Amino acid sequence: MNFEGFLNYTLNFIKRYDGVVFSYIAHFCFAILIFVIGRTIARFISNQLKRILFKRHVDPTVVKFVSALSYYAVIVMTLVAVLGQLGVQTASIVAIIGAAGLAVGLALQGSLSNFAAGVILIIFRPFKVGETVVINSQQGVIDSIQIFSTSMITSTNELVVIPNSQVVNTNIINYTRLPERRLDLVINVGYDSDIQKVYQVLKQAVDKTQNILTSKEPTIRLDVLDASSMNFNVLVWTLNENYGAVKGDLLENIKNGLTANNINIPYPTMDVNLNNK
């Protein structure tokens, strides 16, 4: 075949299949455009998540994991859209991805539960590092918030690691989130004590104790007439950082005041009667 024949053959081929060729070219260009836009969106979402999480002072390991997970999730959806644009049947691909995700989810059910709970803790922040909390009846200072677990240090310097799924499914008491805290004491005195004298001694003990907030009036009242004692409530307010010191000083001042005024502090007693036959 000479050159003129080859040229005629080529022109005839283009005239016959020009619609198909241009259609494939158009689909290919749209596929590239979809991929570029999808990758741009994935980077944008990942960077925004990093910025938000770093602003909330989240652990860097958690930030990297969440941002990478969001990036690759968008990339996978973009690739499925690209394959669909190129004419590939994506229904089977989506089914395979869904089945794989289900299998991985069942295999890592406990870990995924802890991870989801960790995300909830990051978003709602019921506590943060350095705060004193009670979780699962365990009190301590939060040491770190990891992807799958939360660590705290107890007052006896023990490290306690709690899975995040248990953290979000139990009551959380945060002692240090609010700046002020009320100290509640119950003081028991004998029935032979003069009530007005007890009020006077308790008020003097409160006035003598330092770091009690004067902006909130202390409460001293007779609360319960128990089987062997009269129970008085002493309610005072202080700053969180002074709570322990105020409690110790106030108890000491109350004990010294009751002793100095000969006010009896009852203790449990038992009468034993022997029947001799």
TrEMBL record:
| Gene3D superfamilies noted in UniProt | 1.10.287.1260, 2.30.30.60, 3.30.70.100
Gene Ontology terms, MF aspect:
mechanosensitive monoatomic ion channel activity
User: Residue limits of the Mechanosensitive ion channel transmembrane helices 2/3 domain?
Assistant: 70-109
Specify the Mechanosensitive ion channel MscS C-terminal domain's residue ranges.
184-265
The record's subcellular location field reads: Cell inner membrane; Cell membrane
Q: How does it sit in the membrane?
A: Multi-pass membrane protein
Could you tell me which residue ranges the Mechanosensitive ion channel MscS domain spans? 111-177
Please list every transmembrane segment annotated in the UniProt record, as residue ranges.
Answer: 20-42, 62-87, 93-124
Has keyword Zinc-finger?
no
| InterPro entries for this protein | LSM_dom_sf, MS_channel_1st, MS_channel_C, MSC_TM_helix, MscS_archaea/bacteria_type, MscS_beta-dom_sf, MscS_channel_2nd, MscS_channel_C_sf
**GO cellular component annotations of the record:** plasma membrane
Q: Which UniProt keywords apply?
A: Cell inner membrane, Cell membrane, Ion channel, Ion transport, Membrane, Transmembrane, Transmembrane helix, Transport
Pfam families documented for this protein: MS_channel_1st (PF21088), MS_channel_1st_1 (PF05552), MS_channel_2nd (PF00924), MS_channel_3rd (PF21082)
**Reported function:** Mechanosensitive channel that participates in the regulation of osmotic pressure changes within the cell, opening in response to stretch forces in the membrane lipid bilayer, without the need for other proteins. Contributes to normal resistance to hypoosmotic shock. Forms an ion channel of 1.0 nanosiemens conductance with a slight preference for anions.
Please give the family membership noted in the entry: Belongs to the MscS (TC 1.A.23) family.
Q: Which PANTHER family match?
A: SMALL-CONDUCTANCE MECHANOSENSITIVE CHANNEL
Q: Oligomeric state and partners? A: Homoheptamer.
What is the protein name given in its UniProt record?
Small-conductance mechanosensitive channel
The organism is Gilliamella bombicola
